[in-house]
Amino acid sequence: xxxxKYIFVTGGVSSSLGKGIIAASLxxxxxxRGYKTTIQKLDPYxxxxxxxxxxxxxxxxxxxxxxxxxxxxxxxxxxxxxxNTSQANxxxxxxxxxxxxxxxxxxxxxxxxxxxxxxxxxxIKERIQLLGKSGDFDIVITEIGGTVGDIESLxxxxxxxxxxxxxxxxxxxxxxxxxxxxxxxxxxxxxxPTQHSVKTLMxxxxxxxxxxxxxxxxxxxxxxDKLALFCNVKREAVIQSxxxxxxxxxxxxxxxxxxxxxxxxxxxxxxQQEPNLVNWNKFLDRHKNPKNEVHIGLVGKYVELQDSYxxxxxxxxxxxxxxxxxxxxxYIHSEYITEKVLKDKIANxxxxxxxxxxxxxxxxxxxxxxxxxxxxxxPFLGICLGMQMAVIEFARNVLGLKEANSTExxxxxxxxxxxxxxxxKDITHMGGTxxxxxxxxxxxxxxxxxxxxxxxxISERHRHRYxxxxxxxxxxxxxxxKATGLNPDTGLVExxxxxxxxxFIGVQYHPEYKSTVANPHPLFVAFVEATLNYxxxxxxxxxx
Length: 544
Fold this sequence. Notes:
Blueprint: E1 5-11, H1 19-32, E2 37-43, H2 55-58, E3 62-63, E4 69-70, H3 73-81, E5 90-92, H4 93-105, H5 116-132, E6 139-144, H6 154-167, E7 172-179, E8 182-183, E9 188-189, H7 192-203, E10 210-215, H8 221-231, E11 238-242, H9 250-257, H10 259-266, H11 278-288, E12 292-300, H12 310-322, E13 325-333, H13 339-344, E14 351-354, H14 363-376, E15 380-383, H15 385-397, E16 404-406, E17 415-420, E18 435-443, H16 448-453, E19 457-464, E20 466-468, H17 473-478, E21 481-486, E22 493-498, E23 504-507, H18 522-543
Parallel strand pairs: 1-6, 1-7, 2-5, 2-6, 7-10, 10-11, 12-13, 12-14, 14-15, 15-23, 16-17
Antiparallel strand pairs: 3-4, 8-9, 17-20, 18-19, 18-21, 21-22, 22-23
Helix pairs in contact: 1-3, 1-9, 4-5, 5-6, 11-12, 12-18, 14-15
């Protein structure tokens, strides 16, 4: 028997059904039963990683502690499991082919013709088993991106077929997530698309062991029987996944459906213990039964697609539950900030988060927003580019350096208060060349950041190329914008805060990447608390 068991999650009929949420929910249940579980994502696109993708293309790029630029689904994995992922948890077709071509150039294939089978499929199998062979996990769940039948997914499906045969019975199973559409004209759910999807999978040599059926309506017993019969699965292995009010309901829904039990049965693993979801359900209760509500503006330039800021939105959910507050996020496009928007929209919010991003578009809108926030004492959190814009705004409007800018936006600015790191200046290739992954930050005592973290040395994840220019630090600090967090090795500024403002913090790193259900990020928790206090003060002032 293999030491590590493998679960493969494939998708059928339609994309965007939530394979990542199903994989994370099952992993949560298996973890709650005492099994060490991890999840990896195999993405069929040819980009080496999502690092150079526009957020409109694929949502946010999620960054791990070891500096991997990965698919946003890895964020779900970490938020659900409270376990760090790594480079090994996300593999793309681009990375697979890059590795195989490098091996061919080194002569590792001894003059053989390099082909999809066996060379590409062998590389995929090696990546799949990398986590299993580490000895750290009992179960590895592998989510395969895309939809069964896609041309680009075929090598992954073939690799899974081979692995299923190599690993043997009870050591690997396939969960097929599919859609059961509802035809309103006929007033019924239809199983035919799922039957075709399972047939396509079988034509590739893979039999689905478990069907998870995404649906807007309850599946009847008759319909489950039909799916079991025509899709060649056990009746108990037909699992309903009905629309949920929040993704955090899904583990409980899968528990009720018995997904964890049928999975363990097929893997010949004991149940071990009843799933312990006490803390998870406490979080859910606070999330669903808030005692207050705050409205926070998210100022960014990708606001049309919420997945662009997925980790930020989830961090607000975690922090909201911790404060027993419903956080309603108001999306504000930074390209269209006017005096009217500032006075009619920004002025009525309880706090503002200025979001990360790249490039010149929408920058001046962010700067105008931050000026209004600073001058009107509205709670502010700036992340990465948002922190840099706070520095530029302060330099322009407080120090009087009207031409202050970032060399990212204006390479010839006379006051580059934000500038490239020296080691970045000769780089021509964009992918994977930023300051990435976890870096230490020394937090100054007697600062707001220190009160929030309760520690003098923290570790946070980064994804950026430009930095606070230390040449301007003394001047900026003297005027009141304090650098309260510094990298202990390089001296680079990580945190800035305003001394004479109720709650104004900018951070060069991405705190949203480390917020989980079990450990809401302290910076978000404190920010939400500050917005609630601000709202209460406004209400009291109005009543007075």
